[in-house]
Amino acid sequence: MQIVQTIVHCPNGALRYFQHRKLHFMNKTSTNRNAIVIIGILFFVFGFVTWLNGTLIPFLKIACQLDNDVQAFFVTFAFYMAYFFLAIPSSFLLKKTGFKNGMAWGLCVMAIGSLVFVPAANARSFSLFLTGLFIQGAGLALLQTASNPYISIVGPIESAAKRISIMGICNKVAGILSPLILGTLVLKNSNQLTEKLSTVSDAATKNALLNEMAGRVILPYLVMAAVLLLLALMIRKSSLPEIDMEGEDESKAALNTQKQSVFQYPHLLLGVLCLFLYVGVEVMAGDAIGTYGKELGMPLTQTRYFTSFTLLAMLLGYIIGIFTIPKYVSQQKALSISAVSGIVFAIGAFLSQGYLAITFIALLGLSNALMWPAIFPLAINSLGRFTKIGSALLVMGIAGGALMPLLYTSLKDKAHISNHTSFFVCVLPSYVYILYYALRGHKAGAKPQQKQKLQLEAV
C-alpha cells in the first residue's frame, strides 16, 4: 500500500523505487551467475578426480603387481565407499560450517588424499594408494553433499534442471580429459613394459622398472594437490552467497506432520536403491569398459581411452537433456527412455564381439546421462523437513560404484563366468529396476490424489 501511494503521489519516488528494484535484481542475477560459475568449476573437479579411476585400475595392477582384476577394482571400492560412510556426517558438518566453508574443507581433504599418493608411489604400496583414494572420496562426499542441493536452490527452481545439466557437462568434459591426460603420463609404453617385466628374471632390475612406473604418478598428484588447495582458498575468499535452508525446512514441516521418520517414505527408499544401481552401471560403463576390452584381447594402449568414449556419450546425453527437458519430455519420461535404451545397449553388448561390443558399452553413457538429474528430484519429492537426511541417504547410494564392479570381476575371475555374461548379469537387472522406478516406484506411498498429480506432471 505504501509503495502504491509513493508511486501515485511522487513520480520521482516511483522512478527511484523501480531503479532500486532493477539494481537489486541485476546484483542478484550477477551474484547467482558468479555462484554458478564457481560451482561449475567444482563439478569440473569432481569429474576430473572421479574418472581418473579408469586409468588407475590398469596402472596399479601393473605397478603393484596385483594378481587379478578383483584386487584392481578395489580402486573403485575404496573411492566410492567413502560416500557411504561420510554422506550423513557431511550433512551434519555442513550445518556447522555452511555451504561455502564446507566446500573449501572438502577441497582440502581431497588435496590430502592426493598427497598420500606420493609415499604410496615411493613404497609401491597398494594399501596406501587405496587410503589416498578413500580420503579423496571423503572430500568429494562433502563437496557433493553441499554442491548438489546448492546448484538447485541458487537460482529459480523452474530452471534447476537446466543448471544441473550444465553442471553435468562440466563434470563430463573433465571426465573426458582426465583419463587422456593421466593415461598419457602414466601408461606410456605400458605394453612394452609389461612384456619386459615378463621376461626379466633379475629381481633388482624388475623392481627398478616397477619403481620407475610407480613414480610417474607423483608429479601429477602433487600438481593436483596444489590446484585443489588453491581452489579451496579461492572458494573461501569468493563472493559465493550462503543460503539458509532451515527456514524452508520449517515452512514445509506442516506437510509432514503425520510422518515421524524419513524411513516412512517408500519412494525415497526405492530411490536410494535406484541411485545405487544407477551409479553401479555408470561406473561399469566408464571404469570397467577398459577391463572389458582387455578381456577381448585389446591392447592397453587402446583400452586406456575407452573411458573417454563413454563420457563423450554422456556429454551428448546432457546436451540432449538441456534442449528437451521439460519442453518436449518430462524427467520421468526421460528416465524411462534412458532405462529402455540401457536395456537395449546391454543386450547389444552381450550379443556382439570386438569393437562393436565396446561401442554398445560406451553408448551406455548416453543412457546414464539423464538418470542422476531425474532420480534425485523424484526421490526427495515431498520430503519437507526430511529433505536433508533424504539427500544424504541418496548420496550414500553412490556406494553402488564400489560394489557392482567387484561383483563383475568376482563373477569373471572367481566364479569363472564368461566376461560377456558377467557384465550382462550386472547391468541388465539394474536397468530393469530403474525402468520400474521411473514408471511406478517414484509414486510408491503417495495418496491417490498425489499419484494423479504425479501422473499429470509426467505427461
Fold and architecture overview:
This protein has 459 residues and is mainly α. It has a single domain (33-239, 256-458), classed as MFS general substrate transporter like domains (Growth Hormone, Chain: A, Up-down Bundle). Helices cover 81% and strands 0% of the residues. The chain is built from 22 helices and no strands. It has helices spanning 2-9, 11-50, 53-63, 69-72, 74-123, 126-153, 160-186, 190-199, 203-214, 218-237, 246-252, 266-286, 289-295, 300-303, 306-324, 331-351, 354-368, 371-380, 387-396, 400-414, 419-439, 448-458. Helix 5 crosses helix 19, helix 16 (331-351) packs across helix 18 and helix 20 packs antiparallel against helix 21 (419-439). It is globular, with a radius of gyration of 24 Å. Residues 1-27, 248-256 and 455-459 have low confidence and may be disordered.
Do you know the CATH topology?
Growth Hormone, Chain: A
CATH class: Mainly Alpha
Order of secondary-structure elements? HHHHHHHHHHHHHHHHHHHHHH
CATH homolog superfamily: MFS general substrate transporter like domains
CATH architectural name: Up-down Bundle
User: How many β strands by DSSP?
Assistant: 0
Shape label: globular
Tag the structure with descriptive keywords.
Growth Hormone, Chain: A; disordered C terminus; globular; 459 residues; mainly alpha; single chain; disordered N terminus
